[in-house]
Amino acid sequence: MAGRQPQRRPVVALYERMVEAVRNGTYPPGCTLPTEPRLAAELGVSRPALREALILLQEDGVINVRRGVGRTVSHHLPPRGFEYLKPVEELLGEGRQVATTALARTYEEPTDFSTQHLLLPGTCRVRFWESLVEVAGLPSCLTQEWAARDELLAELLPAAAEAFDGPAAGSSSMLRLLLAAGRELPLTGGSTVVATTLGRQRGAQLGRPADTPAVLITQVVRLDRTPLLAAKHMLPPGAPALPVWQAR
Questions:
Q1: Are 72 and 32 in contact (CB under 8 A)?
Q2: How far is CA 21 from CA 53, 79, 233, in A?
Q3: Surface-to-core class of residue 152, CB atoms within 10 Å of its CB (0-12 exposed, 13-18 middle, 19+ buried)
């Protein structure tokens, strides 16, 4: 869903509305959806918009289409969010040339975002990385990442703490180094996906006007129940498609 074009936001909003209807039992798993005319009337939308949303639902495994049966809701719904733990530069690349450029590698006091997702005390300083990911020479993602406190990382995943201070730090996302260090550990991820605009600073970094629509993905990576990394991934129009309905 993240890689779909912002001009299709009404269709994406309808997609999300239908997913929620599936999850809240309006269209429960296993049921057959109404015909297109009836479903469009129930939802108060046009049939072309509905048809596009149904295609997205089928692509993401929310519904199945069988000749002679129609559209049925899957018994095994995909999980919510951008939860496939793979470095964002690899997800965007998929065989294309990818370059990650360090814009910031520093420590900072907790923000509202990092405090909320990393459960930080108000008196510490944590690693903050900002990176620009270019795909085939085009700015495709602005990533901001915060790590758990160094003391916690040194205790739970010392290889990651070492990698963050190593030579690869300047040309890699924090997520990439964290996953490499925790390859054998039960790391899990969860996220949200929302539509937004770039804003002045992010627009300048991505070479776009401030009012350019974009997709914002927030992500938290945990070891068991302990959060180790919190991130924001901003994708402008034209960024490669990014799969989100996956899980590790």
A1: yes
A2: 13, 15, 27
A3: buried
Contact 226, 157 (CB under 8 A): no
Contact 88, 142 (CB under 8 A): no
Q: How far apart, in whole angstroms, are the C-alpha atoms of residue 119 and residue 123?
A: 12
Percentage of the chain beyond pLDDT 70 is 90
SS (HEC) of 83-100? CCCCCHHHHHHCCCCEEE
pTM of the model: 0.66
pLDDT in tens, 184-234: 787 888 788 889 999 999 999 999 999 999 999 999 998 888 999 999 999
Instruction: Evaluate if residue 55 carries a pLDDT over 60.
Output: yes
Q: Give backbone dihedrals phi and psi of 62, rounded to 5 degrees, phi first.
A: -75, -35
Helix (H, G, I), strand (E, B) or coil at 122: coil
Rounded to whole angstroms, how far apart are CA atoms 5 and 9?
A: 8
Sequence-separated (6 or more) residues with CB below 8 Å from residue 5: 237
Torsion of CA 155, 158, 160, 163, to 10 degrees: 140
Three-state SS at 38 = helix
Q: What is the full DSSP assignment across 180-231?
A: HHTTTS-EEEEEEEEEEE-HHHHHHHHTS-TT-EEEEEEEEEEETTEEEEEE
